[in-house]
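Late entry, evening session. Most of the bench is empty. Finally got around to the prediction I had been postponing all week. Sequence below, unchanged from the version circulated by S.P.
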Amino acid sequence: MAILQAVLLLATVVRVFAVDKYEGTGSTGLYWDCCKPSCSWKEKTDWLTHPVQTCQKDDSPLGDFTAGSACGQGGSAYVCNNQQPWAVNDTFSYGFISAFIVGASELDWCCSCYELSFINGGLQGKRMIVQASNTGYDDPKRTIFGVGAPGEKDYADGCMNRYDSDGGGFLGKEGRPLTKRSDCESLPRPLQQGCFWRFDWFLDAFKPNMTFQRVKCPKALTDVTGCIRKDDATFNASTGGVPSVAPSSRGESFGTLTTVLILAAWALSFNV
């Protein structure tokens, strides 16, 4: 029976880890640093059709994906300003995130899309579909999706360098994030739309929790980044409620392995 229990435990572990990469719970935050997104590097194209589009200082598209980040690397690549969130209606928005999913890596999340359903922070009933264009390492023990929305502290001085600013408009009073909608007017015009979103739609919520599930990326997002994962077609589009994941993406590989393990345990039970 010891062998049977061990095989069943392994099957359970496999299924748990299969699900965790694609759905679960986590918290959200806000960030905006003007820097080249992590999923924009050419080396990521092994599992992407195209890295996330970057832009030059004047916000024109940059074709060289080997260009270094303008943040601390002396490069010429910045995040494109159209990678800010926008509201479709009072309860649904699109956006782009820096992702960190416990138990996963960039191989799993770069350019993946997720449907988020908020569960607290005054955002209950609101949903977003977001694409992971960047990676966040704020807390490696927690799943966190940072929504890219201007008005946060400019930690890497990327925005100050891009807009030749002394930082006042980006850091807010005493180096803190902007705290009211009217402060958005102090930002350069290209950043104001996303800043208004954080107050009008996101309600300037402080790290609200959400449930997430991977979905097929909508064209509204991939048209902005140019980035589509090679496994994207194996996921289902959002249903508008609880999105489902196509069996070929999550269930086929992991589910088949789990089934084999359970059948092996069943067979062993007759010989133990």
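Two things to note before I forget:
The beta strands are 23-31, 54-55, 61-62, 78-79, 86-89, 92-100, 113-118, 127-135, 144-148, 209-215.
Confidence is low (pLDDT under 50) at residues 3-19, 241-272.
Will write this up properly tomorrow.
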